[in-house]
Amino acid sequence: GLLGLPNAGKSTFIRAVSAAKPKVADYPFTTLVPNLGVVKVQQHRSFVIADIPGVIEGAAEGAGLGVRFLKHLTRCRYLMHMVDMAPVDESNPAESVRIIANELQKFSPTLATRERWLLLNKIDLLPPDEVDARCQAVIDELNWTGPVFRISALNREGTVPLTGKLMDSLEAVWEEEKTNPEAREREAELQNQMAQEARDRIEELREIEREARRARGDVEDENFNEDDYDVEVIYVGH
């Protein structure tokens, strides 16, 4: 699953590696619904990647479309954290990573423990002689020890090694779960735990909304339910 702040390049990435064609533009919140695309690495080797709309600070409290999107990440085996290395507002890329990590933790502590890969995107917009230093600065500031990939989704630079490595990792996981009942059980427990945490968080937000309506003297909306926090998903094959 792809996650990151708005305009980090997630939609450009999924267009580069699959047949999915989400809208791409130079402004935040271009993606309004999750998109699923099939990534074919070789003839009979493929996986599905999810591009969810950009998450903003406060998403776990319902900011923006918040939990509507975070909920979809609970179904993903790996989290691909897209980082804009050349933000137009000159914000700190490392801080953008911390913002998303904090939202994951607040929404579902179990989801926050999912393996997360750092995709340092838009390196084509950096001066060539500064790419190494800038990327390393982000890694150092975060004390990041997980996988890191330097890419340009627009130019498809670095995307082939990334998708190949992801395919290998997924196949290893699938093989372990096929042959190891304990591994399957662990994953099932994690899925149940994430689903429960998501439901609890959504119910908490529903109660906050009810309290706010009562305080305003609004009539209770009988149609207000968990479906209000769900969204359409667009699936595109390769």
Topology, element by element:
Blueprint: E1 2-3, H1 10-17, E2 35-42, E3 45-51, H2 67-73, E4 79-84, H3 93-107, H4 109-112, E5 116-121, H5 131-142, E6 148-150, H6 159-179, H7 181-216, E7 234-236
Parallel strand pairs: 1-4, 2-7, 4-5, 5-6
Antiparallel strand pairs: 2-3
Helix pairs in contact: 3-5, 6-7
Entry keywords:
single chain; 238 residues; alpha/beta; Rossmann fold; four-stranded parallel beta sheet; three-stranded mixed beta sheet; 7 strands; disordered C terminus
Describe this structure in words.
The chain contains 7 helices and 7 strands. Residues 23-32 and 226-238 have low confidence and may be disordered. Helix 3 runs parallel beside helix 5 (131-142) and helix 6 (159-179) packs across helix 7 (181-216). By secondary structure, it is α/β, with parallel strands linked by helices. The chain has one domain (2-182, 232-236): P-loop containing nucleotide triphosphate hydrolases (Rossmann fold).
CATH superfamily caption: P-loop containing nucleotide triphosphate hydrolases
Helical segment count: 7
The shape is globular
Find the CATH topology: Rossmann fold
pLDDT under 50 segments (min length 5)? 23-32, 226-238
Provide the CATH top-level class. Answer: Alpha Beta
Radius of gyration over C-alpha positions, nearest whole angstrom: 19 Å
Largest sheet: 4 strands, parallel
Report the structural category: alpha/beta
Strand order of the largest sheet: 1-4-5-6
- CATH architecture classification: 3-Layer(aba) Sandwich
Total number of strands: 7
Count structural domains. Answer: 1
Approximately what portion of the residues adopt beta-strand conformation?
5-15%
Mean pLDDT: 82
